[in-house]
Amino acid sequence: MRQTGYTDEKKFEKEYGQSFRLTPVDDIYFSSVGLGDKGNRNLVNVLTVASVFILFIALLNLLNFTLSEVPMRIRSINTRRVMGASQSSLRLQMIMENVGIAFIGLLMAFLIVMGFQRSETCMNLVSGDISFGANAMLATVMAVAALAVGALSAVVPAWYSTSFTPAMVLKGSFGLSPRGRKLRMAIMGVQFCVAFVLAIYIGVMASQSNYIFNSDYGFAKNEVLFTGLTAEACQKKTAIRAELQKLPYVESVGYAQDAIGVGDQYMGWFRGNGDKSMNMQVMLCDPGYLRTMGLKIEEGRDFKESDSQTGAYILNRTMMDKYKWLHVGDSIGHRSEWGDNNYLIVGVCNNFRMKSVRNDNSILSVAFLVLDPLAMNRMGDRCYNLFVRVAEGHDKIEAKRGIEKVLNRLDASFGDYKMKFFDDALQRTYVDEFRFISQVKLFAIICIIITIIGVFSLTMFETEYRRKEIGIRKVMGSSVGAVVRLFAVRYSVPLVVSFVIAAPLGYWLSRQWLQSFAEHTPIYWWLFPLSFVGVSAVVVLTVVAQSWRVATENPVESIKTE
């Protein structure tokens, strides 16, 4: 700005229609300035929350299992207290036991990661280098965190099991103490919350995935094949089009500079001055491109072959609405401002998804441009991508082979053309998003399984301690169904309370992730009851399976062995 002689930033921006901004080095990846700068801070935040969830779940479950062991160990612990052992030594021993378990788990995790690195299928779930050498600091932090989780998970059980008077423990029942019940139920409630949050999150992700592929793109994407052409093939476009159109399964053929919808970077033009300035995305193409892609003409006409001699524009509806002075049949600008590209606007096409859904396509001004021969010679032939629409009712695989055969015959310089399905290219555009979805789904499955294991252990713990009560109930006339309902109903309140807490958190996380898309699905209300029913059904079935075993036992044996 000093070199231009401007000291007033606002004056510079007003005259040139441009602005400058300073971006910290750490934020460049999130700026989307360059082709490789496509980081999303919201996505990073979500991943960070997910990693904290992992450690939190590990802490809760190790705490859960440690607490489940306390009733079986509390008599021996307090016997040792009577024999002279101090509270601090007993607590330290229990903490070190869990640290040892965490250390064994840490070694197993390192082995799993090493195996993960050697699996191509597993590596598809990640991007970048995940070797220990490249992430030594992270591996060290995670090792320390794992050992800390082991230590923290034993603090409450160690304190709890040594906080009673030894005489009371040696003569009483620890298992059904009110404090024990509340603590176990609180831990279980937290696990339910995590399971509900993940279920809601996955539901929103599935909705967004469906939206990406099944929402209206504004063009017909499912029957299109495309490929890049060599320089020699570009010299034979007329012959290639003629040969391809002889094939019974080819409906239309077109050429263009790029494929719409599969990227975020396209050629942009800034033209005009003052209140007649225009900013647009420009797509160089041939007269058959719009027809091949299934774009609809809303006003005026489609390109004709004769436009290749005169040059012509077709604009999308957004551009016509944004720049009110543009009209079909008029030139797009003054020659002094547009130079040799001052062609007529011959038509207006429908709005469509020019870029990925990470961008707001509703505000994009798009101009399709067919060059005349002089401009083609000056700018060069940039329409080096071939697009072919397969006629309805024909096998696309057979059409793909036939088109490749024609291209390989006409272009001996290459001889190895591979046509690509357009919808596959669209899917590759969102490879990072779908990799993230796969990661969260895998994590959610693991967390739900761990939660179910926790529910199973707590149910087993409680049924064992209430075995005598169950036997007496059956002797007094209670049915197996009544006993099972007794345990199932006990979990209904924690499930409802956990869902009430989890629903806002699941909504917030989902909103954070959806903000990485300019175009996204709404968060449907029915995802919440569906998540509640799904998780609750799994929990209740687990409780029923465990309580059924005890409820169907001979009550005499239960009473006798109590």
Major sheet: arrangement of strands: 3-4-8-6-7-5
Largest sheet features:
6 strands, mixed
Cα(first) to Cα(last) distance is 87 Å
The number of distinct helices, counting runs of at least 4 residues, comes to 22
Mean pLDDT: 81
Radius of gyration: 34 Å
Q: Which geometry do the CA atoms define?
A: elongated
Runs in which pLDDT lies below 50 for 5 or more consecutive residues are none
Share in helix = 55-70%
| Residue fraction in strands | 5-15%
How many DSSP-defined strands? 10
- The secondary structure category is alpha+beta
Offer a few descriptive terms.
alpha+beta, 562 residues, 4-stranded antiparallel β-sheet
Helix/strand layout:
Layout: H1 9-16, H2 41-82, H3 87-117, H4 120-123, H5 136-161, H6 166-171, H7 178-214, E1 224-228, H8 231-234, H9 237-244, E2 250-256, E3 268-271, E4 278-284, H10 289-293, E5 297-300, H11 307-310, E6 312-316, H12 317-322, H13 335-338, E7 344-349, E8 366-370, H14 373-379, E9 385-390, H15 396-410, E10 420-421, H16 422-429, H17 431-465, H18 467-475, H19 480-490, H20 492-514, H21 527-551, H22 555-561
Helix pairs in contact: 2-5, 2-7, 2-17, 3-5, 7-17, 7-20, 7-21, 9-15, 17-21, 18-22, 19-21, 20-21
